[in-house]
Amino acid sequence: MAFLRGINVGNRRPKKDELTAAVAGSEFADVTTYQASGNLIFETGLAPSDVEPILEQRLRDALGYEVTCFVRTIGQLHALLDDVPPAGPDEKHQIIFYRADPGDEAHAALAATSGPNDTLRPRGSETIWTHVGSMLESPLAALTPKRGAPVTTVRTAATIDRLVTKFG
Known about the structure:
This protein is α+β, with helices and mostly antiparallel strands. It is built from 5 helices and 8 strands.
C-alpha cells in the first residue's frame, strides 16, 4: 500500500484510472485507489523500499510532477494500529508517515512544534499524533516540511483502520 503525498491538492487531482494506469505493470497486481486517490493499493512481491522509487518514477512520468510515496505492508499497518491507544473524549489520532526513521533530533523538532493539546508517540518511520479538538487548532496541522526536515504525509488512524479492514 502506498500513501501519496499532496496528490489531491491545488490543481493536482488525478482520477483513479489515471493513477492505476500509471503504476500498473508486471510488478504490481490488483492496483486500485481508496478515498480520493491518495491511497494506492496493490499486490507486489517487492520490498517497500524497492517499490517507492518505481512508483514515484511512474507517477512523475504520467502526471508530470513529483509525487512522494510512503509504502507500507498490511502487516506493518496492523502493527501500527496495535500501537494506537484508545481515543479519549474529543481526541483524534493521526498517523504521520516518514520514508524512514528520521531520528531523535527530527522527533524532538516535531515535538517542539506541537501545541498543548497534542501528544506525539514516535515509532520509527511513523509518529502517532493524538490531538484534542480540531486538528486545525494544532500548530502541527500544516506540517509543511522545513528545509532539511523529513518529508511526511498524514492519514487518520480511522482511514488506516478502514484500509486494513477492506484490503487486508
